[in-house]
Write a structure and sequence with these properties.
4 domains; Methionyl-trna Synthetase, domain 2; RNA-binding; five-stranded antiparallel β-sheet; five-stranded parallel β-sheet; Isoleucyl-tRNA Synthetase, Domain 1
RNA sequence: UGCGGGGUGGAGCAGUGGUAGCUCGUUGGGCUCAUAACCCAAAGGUCGGAGGUUCGAAUCCUUCCUCCGCUACCA
C-alpha cells in the first residue's frame, strides 16, 4: 500500500434546509470523525473539512414559503448544525459554508479555469418558465394530472402513484408548484460538462485502479460507466447561488452539484493558507465520506471536474454508507420522521457517546439498517454499561480498595496472564486494520473486546478470593487489569471521546498516542489513580418511552395530514362543465401491459365506439375479474401514447384516503354511452 | 422499466465452494470485586423461494419474490 504524507478527509456537506439527524450521523459524520480522530492519534498530518451546502432550489422555495430570504434560511440551519456538530464531538477542523466569500471566489475561479480551457459545451434549449415567479422550473417543480391514472399530484418527471416516468408536457393542466401559474416554454442557454469525454479515463481510474472500493460504490460507478456518460449542465437559471462568471450569464448560477464539492476546496482554503498541499500534492490521501445517494457525484462527476481542471488530486477512497431507517420507516425531513441531533443533545445531556456508540455499532455499512430506541437502550445498558463501564469500575474500585489507588507492581506472570497481555496487542492490531479498511462496526466491536477480555480476566483470576490467600499474586492481577484499562482509553478514544476523556482523568493518564496502544506498561508501579465515577449510566424505560411517544405523535400528525379531504377546486361555469364528455361504458377485454406493475390495457365499449384505454389500476383489479364491468369514462380526453399504446380517454376512479382506486359504476345497469351529467 | 446494493437462528450483523459464526436477547448454572453488572454452558437457523452445476453450495449459474438507492436540470 502506498504511504501518504498527509490526509484530507471530507464529509458530505449537509444541505442547509434542515437540521442534522441520526441518518446523517450514522452514514457520514460518525465514520469520518472516528477515522479522523484515529489518524490524529497516529500523529499524521490530517485535516477534516466540512460545511453547509447552502444553494439550490429547495432552499429558495423554503424561503419563499416562509416569506424570508434564502440567506435567513441557511443562516438558521448553518448555526444549528455547526453547534450540534461541536456539541456532539464531531471534530471538523473547519465547518464552513458555501455562501461565504472564499467559496464564491473559489467556485468562480474553478468554473473560469474550465471555461478558459474550453472544457464546457454551450447549448441552449427550451425549458418551462414560471412567469409569475419569474424563474425556470425543474421538472420536479411542475405538477399536474397524470394522463394515466388521473393522479392530480403527478410531478413533471414522474407520477408517484402509477410509477410512470413523464415529461412535463405530458401532464394535463400543468402548473408550477411555486406560484401555481401555468408554465410556458422559453429558450435558455447553459454550460455543460462533457462527461462522455472523460469516460475512458474514468473507466481506467475506477474500474481498474480502484477495485478495492466498497462493492456498493464500485457497482454503482460501473453501472454508470457501462451505460455511457452524457454531458451534464453545470448552470441553472436562478438568483440564489454562485453567479456564472462569464459575459452574458446574467441570472445564471452554478448548479449545486458543481458548486457543492468545490465547497471542500474553499473550506480548506479558509482553514489554512497552506491549502494547496492538501489538494495538489500527490502524497496527500483524500477520502470522501458520503451517503449512497452521493456516489456518482463524488466518484464520477467531481473527479471529472478535478481532472478537467488539471492541478488537483483525486480521492483515494469514497467509503459511502447505505441509509439508516428509524423505527422501520424511512427517515424523512419533510415528514419530521427523524431523531434530530440538536434535540437528542437536549434530551440526553452528556450522552453523546451513547449515540455515537449505537450508531456506529449499527451503521449501515453494507445495507440499510434500522435504528430503534429499544436497540439504543439495549446497546447502552447491555454493552456500554455492562461490559465497558462495569469492567472499568471493577478495576478501579479494586485498586482503590486494595492499594489505596496506587498501581501495584506486576510480579511473576502465569500462562493466562501472558495470554491476556498478548491479546492486548492483538486487539490493537485488529482495531487498526478494521479502521484502515473503513470497517467501523468491526473496529468498534474489537475495541469492546478489550473490555470483554478484562471482564473475563477478572472472573478467571478472582482477585477478591485470592486476596485472602496470596496477596502478592493479586498485585500482578490488578496491574494487568489496569494496563487493560489504560489501553481502553486509547483504542476506544476514536469512538467514545467524551467517556475516554473522563476515564483518562480517573486514572491520571494522558498518553493519547495510538503508538502506545498494545503496550502493557502504560501505568507504572506506584502511579496514583483517582476515585472513579460511573462511566455510563443505565437508561430507564421511561426515557425511551418518551422518545417513542414523540415519534408516535409525529406519525399521528402525518396520518391526519394525509387523511385530509382534498380541498375544493375553483368554481367553473356550466359551459365548462358541458365540455366534459363523461359516459358509461363496459369493459370488453383487459390485460396487463407487459413489464409494468400498475398498467392495464382495456378494450371498452363506449356506445360511440370500441376503444383502447390504458389505466393504472393493475394493483387493485385483476384483469379477468373486471371483464364485463360497467364503468364511467371521460370520453373526450385528448389521446396519449402510453408504453407505445394509444390510450383514448380515461377511466374514472374514486381515490380513497389511502390511495386505493375504486371504479365508479352506475348503481343499475344502463346502456353504454349514457351521458353522465 | 433498467441498473446497483441487500434478504443468514427472536434482533442486529459476519461469512463467497469443504462439518453455519459473532454481538445482544432467552434458558440453566457459577461468582459476589462490580451500575442485579460479570463468567460458563445450552437451546434456537432446511442461510428469501424454485431449479441447476459439483463428490460437496449460504457461497457459482438460471429464474422468481421482496426491501433500499440511482435512472442523468429531484442535493
Amino acid at each position: 500500500m502506498k504511504n501518504f504524507k498527509r490526509y484530507l478527509v471530507t464529509s458530505a456537506l449537509p444541505y442547509a434546509n434542515g437540521p442534522i439527524h441520526i441518518g446523517h450521523l450514522a452514514g457520514v459524520y460518525i465514520p469520518s470523525d472516528i477515522y479522523t480522530r484515529y489518524l490524529r492519534m497516529k500523529g499524521v498530518d490530517v485535516i477534516s473539512v466540512c460545511g453547509s451546502d447552502e444553494h439550490g432550489v429547495p432552499i429558495t422555495l423554503k424561503a419563499r414559503k416562509e416569506g424570508v430570504s434564502p440567506q435567513e434560511i441557511v443562516d438558521r440551519y448553518h448555526t444549528i448544525n455547526k453547534k450540534a456538530f461541536e456539541d456532539f464531538g464531531i471534530a471538523f477542523d473547519i465547518f464552513s459554508r458555501t455562501s461565504n466569500k472564499v467559496h464564491y471566489e473559489t467556485a468562480s475561479d474553478f468554473f473560469r479555469t474550465l471555461y478558459n480551457k474550453g472544457e464546457f459545451i454551450e447549448k441552449s434549449s427550451e425549458q418551462y418558465f414560471d412567469e409569475e415567479a419569474c424563474c425556470f422550473l425543474a421538472d420536479r417543480y411542475i405538477m399536474g394530472t397524470c394522463p394515466l391514472c388521473g393522479n392530480e399530484n403527478a410531478y413533471g418527471d414522474q407520477c408517484e402513484k402509477c410509477g410512470t416516468s413523464l415529461s412535463p408536457n405530458e401532464l394535463i393542466d400543468p402548473h408550477s408548484t411555486i406560484s401555481g401559474s401555468k408554465p410556458v416554454l422559453r429558450e435558455t442557454l447553459h454550460w455543460y460538462l462533457p462527461l462522455d469525454k472523460y469516460e475512458p479515463w474514468l473507466k481506467k481510474w475506477i474500474l481498474e485502479d480502484h477495485k478495492e472500493w466498497k462493492v456498493n460504490v464500485y457497482g454503482q460507478c460501473k453501472s454508470w460507466l457501462d451505460h455511457g456518460l452524457q454531458p451534464r449542465a453545470v448552470s441553472r437559471d436562478l438568483d440564489w447561488g454562485v453567479p456564472v462568471p462569464v459575459e452574458g450569464a446574467k441570472g445564471k448560477v452554478l448548479y449545486v452539484w458543481f458548486d457543492a464539492p468545490i465547497g471542500y476546496i474553499s473550506a480548506t482554503k479558509e482553514l489554512t493558507p497552506d491549502w494547496e498541499k492538501y489538494w495538489k500534492d500527490k502524497e496527500t490521501k483524500m477520502v470522501h465520506f458520503i451517503g449512497k445517494d452521493n456516489i456518482v457525484f463524488h466518484c464520477i462527476i467531481f473527479p471529472a471536474m478535478l481532472n478537467a481542471e488539471g492541478t488537483f488530486i483525486l480521492p483515494e477512497n469514497v467509503p459511502a454508507n447505505e441509509f439508516l431507517n428509524l423505527e422501520n420507516d424511512k427517515i424523512s425531513t419533510s415528514r419530521n420522521w427523524a431523531v434530530w441531533l440538536h434535540e437528542y443533545l437536549e434530551d440526553f445531556p452528556g450522552k453523546q457517546d451513547v449515540l455515537r456508540y449505537s450508531l456506529c455499532a449499527n451503521a449501515p455499512e453494507t445495507k440499510d439498517n434500522d435504528f430503534t430506541w429499544k436497540d439504543f437502550q439495549a446497546r447502552n445498558n447491555n454493552e456500554l454499561v455492562a461490559i465497558l463501564g462495569n469492567f472499568v469500575n471493577r478495576a478501579l474500585v479494586l485498586t482503590n480498595n486494595y492499594y489505596d489507588g496506587k498501581v501495584p507492581a506486576r510480579g511473576k506472570t502465569d500462562s493466562n496472564d501472558d495470554a491476556v497481555l498478548k491479546e492486548i496487542a492483538r486487539i490493537r492490531e485488529n482495531v487498526e486494520s478494521s479502521l484502515e479498511a473503513f470497517r467501523f462496526r468491526e473496529a468498534l466491536k474489537e475495541a469492546m473486546n478489550l473490555a470483554r477480555l478484562g471482564n473475563k480476566y477478572l472472573a478467571d483470576a478472582e482477585p477478591w478470593k485470592v486476596i485472602k490467600t496470596d496477596p502478592e499474586r493479586v498485585k500482578t492481577i490488578m496491574n494487568i487489569a489496569l494496563q487493560i484499562t489504560a489501553n481502553l482509553t486509547i483504542v476506544c478514544e476514536p469512538f467514545l471521546p467524551f467517556s475516554m476523556e473522563k476515564l483518562r482523568g480517573w486514572i491520571n493518564f494522558n498518553e493519547l498516542k495510538w503508538s502506545e496502544a498494545g503496550k502493557t506498561d502504560l501505568l507504572i508501579t506506584g502511579h496514583v489513580i483517582n476515585k472513579p465515577g460511573l462511566l455510563f449510566e443505565k437508561i430507564e424505560d421511561e426515557d425511551i418511552t418518551k422518545q417513542i411517544d414523540k415519534l408516535l405523535a409525529t406519525k399521528k400528525a402525518n396520518e391526519a395530514e394525509g387523511a385530509k379531504t382534498a380541498p375544493g377546486k375553483d368554481v367553473i361555469t356550466f359551459d365548462d362543465f358541458t365540455k366534459i364528455d363523461i359516459r358509461t361504458a363496459t369493459i370488453l377485454e383487459a390485460e396487463k401491459v407487459p413489464k409494468t406493475t400498475r398498467l392495464l390495457k382495456l378494450k371498452i365499449d363506449t356506445g360511440l365506439d370500441i376503444r383502447t384505454i390504458v389505466s393504472g389500476i393493475a394493483e387493485y383489479y385483476e384483469p379477468e375479474a373486471i371483464i364485463g364491468k360497467q364503468i364511467s369514462v371521460l370520453a373526450n380526453l385528448e389521446p396519449r401514447k402510453i408504453k407505445g399504446i394509444e390510450s383514448k380517454g380515461m377511466i374514472l376512479m374514486a381515490e380513497d384516503k389511502d390511495g386505493k382506486l375504486v371504479m365508479v359504476t352506475p348503481a343499475d345497469k344502463v346502456s353504454n354511452g349514457s351521458m353522465i351529467k
